[in-house]
Design brief:
By secondary structure, the chain is α/β, with parallel strands linked by helices. It contains eight helices and ten strands. Helix 7 links the parallel strand 7 and strand 8. The longest helix is centred in the middle third of the chain and has 28 residues. The two termini are 71 Å apart. The N terminus is likely disordered.
C-alpha cells in the first residue's frame, strides 16, 4: 500500500523488546520525518532521566513535574522512532537504543556548553582580539598601565594597536573596524560614546644647548619667537593647530615646519637645532641624546576613550 507524505505509519519500537510495563515498548507510533529536529531540552531531560532512573526524580532535579519529563521523553522517542526507556512501576531503565544514545547526548550537551562558553568569552572580550586606535605615546603613563593591566587580566586576547589621526580613528569606530580609540581632547563625536579617562602635561622639547633648559617650567610667551617642527604623521597636525592657537593669541605668527618623519625621528632633528616641538608627558620617558623636556606652565592635555 502506498502511503503519501504526512500520513502516519504504525511501526514497532526500535529495540524489538517485549512490551514494557506501562505498555510503551510495543506501542505503535506515528513515523516522524527526519526534518523534525531534536531540541536541547530533549537531551537535557533524557540525560537527567537516565542518570536518576526516574522521571519523577529527573523532574525534581530540573524543577519540573514528572509529567513534563514524561511528555518530553515521549516526544523525543517519537522523533527518533525508537524507545529509549523501559517504564517500570519503580522507575525507568534504558533500552539498548537508550544506552547507545546516552553517550552521544552527553557529548552533544558538552559541545554546546563549550561553544556557548567560548562565544560568551569572546563577547566579554576574554578571547579573540581588541583593536585600539592610539594617538599618543604608550612609552609610559596611564595608557601603558591600562594596556598592561588588561593584558594580565585577559591573556587570551590579542591587543592590536593602530596609529592614526582622530578623524581616521572615529571613522573606523563608526564602521566597527576599531573597538576603541584613545584621543586627545574632550570633544564629542556624533554617533560615538566618549569617556574622559586621564590628563597629561604638555612638554616642549628643547636642544640641550637651548637657554630655556635652565628653566624648570616655561611659559607660552617664552616660546613666542621660536621655530617649531612637527611631523606630517599623527599627531603632527594637532600639534601644529595647537601652536597656532596659543601663539597667535599672544600676537605672534609661529614659524612651523612640517617634516616627513615619524615622532621618533623628529626628536633627533630637535637635537641638531632644526626647531622645537611638543610632546605629551607619556613621551618624556623616551631618552634621546641631545634633547631636554620642559613642561609648559598650566598646559594640561585631556585624553578620552571613544
Amino acid at each position: 500500500m502506498l502511503i503519501s507524505k504526512g500520513q502516519s505509519l504504525a511501526h514497532a519500537r526500535g529495540d524489538g523488546s517485549p512490551a514494557d510495563k506501562g505498555g510503551r515498548g510495543s506501542m505503535t507510533r506515528k513515523l516522524v520525518t527526519s526534518s523534525d529536529a531534536i531540541e536541547f531540552r530533549h537531551l537535557r531531560y533524557f540525560i537527567a532521566a537516565a542518570e536518576h532512573g526516574s522521571f519523577r526524580k529527573a523532574g525534581n532535579s530540573l524543577g519540573l513535574s514528572q509529567s513534563a519529563i514524561s511528555r518530553c521523553i515521549a516526544d523525543l522517542e517519537d522523533r527518533m522512532g525508537a524507545s529509549l526507556f523501559h517504564r517500570h512501576s519503580w522507575g525507568v531503565s534504558q533500552t539498548f537504543a537508550g544506552q547507545r544514545f546516552l553517550h552521544r547526548a552527553r557529548r552533544a550537551i558538552r559541545t554546546i556548553g563549550e561553544g556557548a562558553n567560548e562565544v560568551a568569552a569572546a563577547g566579554r572580550s576574554e578571547q579573540g582580539r581588541v583593536r585600539i586606535g592610539i594617538y599618543s605615546s604608550i612609552a609610559s603613563g596611564f595608557l601603558t598601565k591600562l594596556l598592561a593591566s588588561y593584558g594580565r587580566s585577559h591573556s587570551d586576547v590579542r591587543i592590536e594597536l593602530i596609529d592614526g589621526d582622530p578623524a581616521e580613528h572615529v571613522a573606523a569606530i563608526r564602521q566597527f573596524r576599531l573597538d576603541v580609540a584613545f584621543l586627545t581632547g574632550d570633544r564629542d563625536w556624533p554617533g560615538c560614546d566618549r569617556a574622559l579617562l586621564w590628563s597629561e602635561r604638555v612638554f616642549v622639547v628643547l636642544p640641550d644647548i637651548h637657554p630655556l633648559v635652565a628653566e624648570e617650567e616655561v611659559m607660552w610667551r617664552d616660546l613666542a619667537d621660536q621655530p617649531f617642527i612637527v611631523s606630517e604623521t599623527a599627531p603632527g597636525q594637532e600639534i601644529h593647530d595647537h601652536l597656532v592657537r596659543e601663539l597667535t593669541g599672544l600676537g605672534w605668527h609661529p614659524e612651523i615646519q612640517v617634516q616627513s618623519v615619524g615622532r621618533d625621528n623628529l626628536l633627533p632633528l630637535v637635537a641638531i637645532g632644526q626647531g622645537l616641538t611638543l610632546v605629551s608627558e607619556a613621551m618624556t620617558v623616551a631618552q634621546f641624546p641631545g634633547v631636554t623636556y620642559r613642561p609648559i606652565l598650566g598646559e594640561i592635555l585631556p585624553f578620552s576613550a571613544i
